Amino acid sequence: MTARKLLIGTLCLGFWSSAAQAQDATLRFAHWLPEQHALPATGFKEWTESIHEASGGTIRFQMYPAQQLGSAEDHYDMAASGIADVTWVNPGYTAGRFPVSDLLQLPFIVSDTLNGAAAATEWYKQYAEQEMPEVVMCLIHGHYPGTLHAKEEIRHPSQVRGMTIRPANSSIAQLVSVLGGASVQVSAPETREALARGTADAITFPSGSTILFGIDDITRYHIEYPMYSSWQAILINRNTYQRLSDEQQGVIDDHCTGEWATRVTRGWEEMEREGHEHFRSSPEHTMIELTDEELDAWREAAAPLRDAWAERVQNAGHDPESLLNDLQERLAAVDALAE
Fold first, then answer.
1. What is the tens place of the pLDDT at every residue in 143-171?
2. Residue of 49, 127, 233, 286 with fewest CB within 10 Å of its CB?
3. What local confidence, expressed as pLDDT, does residue 12 receive?
4. 110 beta partners
5. In terms of domain of life, where is this protein from (predicted)?
6. One fold for both 3-143+230-272 and 147-228+282-333?
7. Domain covering 147-228+282-333, topology
8. What is the pLDDT of residues 55-90, one digit of tens each?
9. What pLDDT does 111 receive?
């Protein structure tokens, strides 16, 4: 056999280790976080190790962190096309592509992302196959609620006019536009450079991640109130999933639950919460306590986003009121609904 034929044969086998060991699979897991981030170090590690053990060692993972296989915005397509077998995706990075999931990304929806992770996963699984047909939507989870971090004090939404903001997702980008600001679209790892170069005046981010990405030495003012959460999903290429044995698929199914959504995000939640507490106690940082009137102004400014979301999901064939009520009931049942 020539070297070229041998190479082609190896590629055709994909993730299978060999014909003699057809049940052994090594899955390529791609994400865009640095390895030292709490999520890969705790949640991803626990999830992959548990799958490896439950499968009797037949499922392994090869990790590709920090955008090694593609940019953060490309991770859905990487899972859909099979460039990676498993990816961690922010659906809100792609404006309008996943209208149902956009509800989770809207401001003032979820107050407790840890308690709300299971509810959100169970809610979205009802619609994921329609929105994401090329993949298996395993679970979805949000980070500890994020807020606005800026180089100067921002209290009222009217102050955003004329500013450039790095939004966490497409919904926050819409809010910036409604307020008369401009968005600079960069992924989380690229945010510090945008601030340092002056192409962004402020960001929407969870607090701990501002420290991890070195943004805390640029942004010194932070709104105390939890304004939004950005939600991420673990996705599995559908062909990869279907090539697994029935037993292996059962192991994956057991790890694609609301319970695992909570377990995956717990370490990240703690990191972000600690960052928020650091800003509260640091003399170099100012936590901005909004008045009731200022908070009402932010809520009023965000109201058109819900109307725009309702129109998008209606155009996609869904009843927006039913979707919203269903999610709100699930979140309220676990004290995770924003008031």
1. 999 999 999 999 999 999 999 999 998 99
2. 49
3. 42
4. 337
5. Bacteria
6. yes
7. D-Maltodextrin-Binding Protein; domain 2 (3.40.190)
8. 999 999 999 999 999 999 999 999 999 999 999 999
9. 93
* Cβ neighbours around 182 below 10 Å, total: 16
State in Å, rounded, how far the first CA of the chain is from the last one: 67
Whether the CA torsion 15, 98, 161, 302 is positive or negative: it is negative
**Residue labelled with tokens 């009121």:** 321
> What residue segments make up the domains of the chain, in order of their start?
3-143+230-272, 147-228+282-333
- Can you tell me the distance from the alpha carbon of 101 to that of 167, in angstroms, rounded to the nearest whole number? 17
Assess whether pLDDT exceeds 90 at residue 4: no
Q: In what order do the strands lie in the sheet with 86-89?
A: 59-64, 25-30, 86-89, 231-237, 135-142
- How far apart CA 89 and CA 87 sit, in angstroms, is 6
The DSSP H or E segment spanning 170 is helix 170-178
The answer on pLDDT for 3 being more than 70 is no
How would you classify the pairing of strands 25-30 and 86-89?
parallel
Backbone angles phi, psi at 205, to 5 degrees: -160, 155
DSSP 42: I
pLDDT at residue 187, rounded to an integer = 84
**What pLDDT score does 204 carry?**
96
Are the C-beta atoms of 68 and 300 separated by less than 8 Å? Answer: no
- Decide: 114 and 253 in contact? Cβ < 8 Å: no
d(CA 156, CA 119): 32
CA distance 99 to 313: 6
What SS3 class is residue 149?
strand
What mean pLDDT value characterizes the chain? 93
Other Cβ atoms closer than 10 A to 14? 14
Characterize the bridge pairing of strands 182-183 and 231-237.
unpaired
Mean pLDDT, residues 256-280 taken together: 97
CB count in 10 Å sphere of residue 220: 16
Q: What angle in degrees, to the nearest 10, is found between the helix axes of 320-333 and 292-315?
A: 130
- CATH domain 3-143+230-272 topology: D-Maltodextrin-Binding Protein; domain 2 (3.40.190)
CB atoms closer than 10 angstroms to residue 177: 14
